[in-house]
Predict the structure.
Amino acid sequence: MQPLDTAWLLTHLRCPQCEAPALAVDASVLVCRTCGRHYPVVAGICNFVLPDQLGPTAQQEIRAINCHLHDPVKRQHLMHRDQNGLLAAHFLRRSVRMAARYLAPYATAGQALCALGCGGGFDLLTLAQFVRFKRIVAGDISTAATACIGENLAAQDGRLGLLACEFQRCPVRRSPDVVGFVFEALHHTADVHQTIEQLLAQNFDQLVFVEPTRNWLTDLLAKWSLTMNVEYSGLTPDWIHLRKVRAIAQRMGYHMAATTWWPCPDNLVPRWIKCSTRLTRGFCRLVDIGSWLTAPFHFGAMSAVHLWK
C-alpha cells in the first residue's frame, strides 16, 4: 500500500494529550499547536504512545509484544497466523468473515478504516480477502508490531497510514467517514467495557469489533482453566459480556448488532483429530453447525459487534 496523504491524515487526528485537533508537521515530528506536545514520526509511523502515562497493563503488553517479535518462531506466528495449523486458520477466517459482513457497507461507501490493536497486521491482510478499503489507518500499542503491519500490507492496493497508540488515548478524531475496527485486542486492556465506552465517547460514530465473549458456559469452563487463561503477556484477559455492551450502547445512543459463534482452541482438540486433515475439517464443520444453532440466542464464545449512531 502507498502512504496515506499527510493532509488527509492530519484532518483526522488529534492530540491524545489535550485532545485538540491541532496537529502540525515539523520536520520528523508532529506537534500539537495547543499544548506543544511532540510526537515522533519514525519510518512512517506516528508514535502517539505517551510513556509517562502508560498504565501497568499497557506497559506489560508492550514488553510482551516486543519479546514476541524478537523470537523468530513467535514473530512468524504473529505475522502469519494462518500457518499455525488447519484449526487456527479455519476459525481465524470465520472470525474475519463475520467482521467483514459489518464492514462491507462502509468500504462500498468509500469510508476509511481505522484499525487499532492490529498486532502484526495479518488480520487486516485476511480481511482484504473479503472487503477492501481504499484508505486504512492502522496501528498497535507497540511500534515494532506497527512496523509489521506495513510489511504485511505492502502488496495491497490503497493507501495506509501507520500510528502507534493505546486504546485509552486514541488520536483518531470522530468523523462520519471513518469506521473503527478492533480484532481480538480489546480484551488485552484492564477493563474491556470501559475501553469500548471510551472509544464511543471520544473517537467513533461507528465501531466494529471481534472479541472473546463471556456466557455461563465460558464462565464454567474458566473454573477448570479451559477459557480466559493467562495470555502471552502474563495478563488474564477481560472478555466482553454482550449484555454490558448493549447497556453501554443504549446509554450512549448507539444502535447495536451482534453475531456469535463458537471457536475451538487448539489445546482443547484431541491430538488424534488434529493428525488427520479429514477429521480436522469434519470437526470444524461440526463446531460451525453448533454455532449456527446457537447464534439466534447470541450464545457463543466469540462475537462480532457493530455499534453505530
